[in-house]
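As described in the Methods, two query proteins were run sequentially through the folding procedure within a single session, without resetting any intermediate state between them. The first query and its resulting structure tokens are shown here.
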Amino acid sequence: MAFDQTNPQDDSTLLARYATGEQSAARLLTARHLPRVFAHAHRLLQDHGEAEDVAQEAMLKLWKIAPDWREGEAKLSTWLYRVTANACTDRLRKRRTVALEAAPELVDNSPSAETGLITQDRQRALHGAMQSLPERQRNALVLRHFEALSNPEIAAALETSVEAVESLLSRARRSLAINLSHLRPSGISPKSGQKLEKEQVNEKQ
């Protein structure tokens, strides 16, 4: 997560300042992290209201642990991703009885009506395929491809090993390739998709 370039102080310093009662430090941390926390929650939940609630819960937890935060034990952004992912997982488990068709649709901003329908259909399919993944696979995939975290950072956020993250990503990509194979343009074979998946898995961290 990129820091605010206009303020050189790191997260631990700002959190320590907040713990002493300095509200300006809290404002800086909020501006720095809340948008990413909300975006991460929204990608996992696909619900604006719930994502706002989770983001607020995550920041409240941060303020509560501020006095006990020890510099060097964890990266604050990684800690927030973990708290957010856990909160989203809890909410998703409560939704299990809700039909997939009732899940919120992704916003379609394409200019053409025809293109919009096609894009909307693809977005629904992707959303459905993502929601069908086990929680840890979905969390790993979102952190890797939407939040652009490295595998070691994902491992820290999910409290697992880098090898386990690689396995989660590989299985998630394989499942998505199978579930979305009907959207593959003609001329692209499953082997091509497998090759792409292999290249992605072997990305340099």
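Immediately afterward, the second query was submitted; its sequence and tokens are:
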Amino acid sequence: MPDKLLQKTLIVSLLCLFAVFNNATAQKKDSAKPAKPKDTLTFRQKYAYPNAKVAMLCSVVIPGLGQAYNHKYWKIPIVYAGLGTAAYFIITNQQQYLSFNTALKQRTSNPVIKDQYFGIYTIDDLVNNENTCARYRNISIFAAAFVYLLNIVDANVDGQLRKFDVSDDISLHFSPQLSPDQFGKFTIQPGFSLVKRF
């Protein structure tokens, strides 16, 4: 079962990598072939770099791959640090939960079996510690899911914003404005204006 899952993961990863790196290679057009109509787009035209859908799909398959597709390599360690930290706390809290759960079962069995916390914690303490570890484990699972979803959203938004125009032709200026009041006198009022230069 794990081998089949590993094979499927590798196949999907390779297909995603092929789609990403296929956009990087240039092809020369053959002048002998007739031109295609404008309404039919090739795969390369439809998914031209940067493409937010490809970036999002890459991050769904392998966290951080969408950031690599968007050439934001500095974000990849942040993604894996968040996932690794959440995974560490999931594992640690689960181990502590199982330890307290086993001790509680031994303490409440008939006859009573001495556990590793015998003389340290009461039964109420064991129940409280077990519940606390379960709660922290669940919070860590939600944190891992949040980091994973944030990785997908970041890849999608970053892929869309790469096409956003941030040139000097568009600017926001603060300038005073003269406007008449009810008595016909002109007063200066602050105002904002969005300027597009052609």
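The two ends are 61 Å apart (CA to CA). We note this only descriptively and draw no conclusion about the first query from it.
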